[in-house]
Request: fold
Amino acid sequence: MQLRKYRGKLLIKPSQKSIKSITQRLKVIVSKAKSWTQDELIKTLNPVIRGWTNYHRHIVAKDTFRKLDSYLWEITWQWGKRRHPNKGHKWIANKYWASEGTRKWIFQTKETKLLKFSDTKIRRHSLPKLDANPYLNRQYFLERKDRIKRQAPWI
Reply:
């Protein structure tokens, strides 16, 4: 984690070491997947993407997620071009990517869809009131717990 203070506000960002680690891991997976089907590649990449984004979703990571999405598109495009060296770009794009609603370039099959880093919602941690006491202000803590559950239904 990279800690910086901007105009009196503390911002925590993913470290360069962490970003380099995830890009290297994605690169290794895609390079191992030279003969895999698209479905197998997606099923291998999704848990890695989900785990990394869940770890970093509480910090200032939106720009990092966007850059990693771009990197992920580049390596999957190289994967597709390598599998079909005699086909054109349009053919490769139509085979491996689809559009959904207003979104284009979704790497997917009929069964699975590759997750995007930027699809992860950034969730800020809300601090409780400093003068609140769980024994004296029980109503405040129950309302706070309900509010947090509404934001994250999996808790």
Q: What stands out?
A: Residues 2-119 form one domain. The helical segments are 16-32, 38-56, 62-83, 89-96, 138-151. The CA atoms of residues 83 and 146 lie 50 Å apart. The chain is about 50% helix and 10% strand.
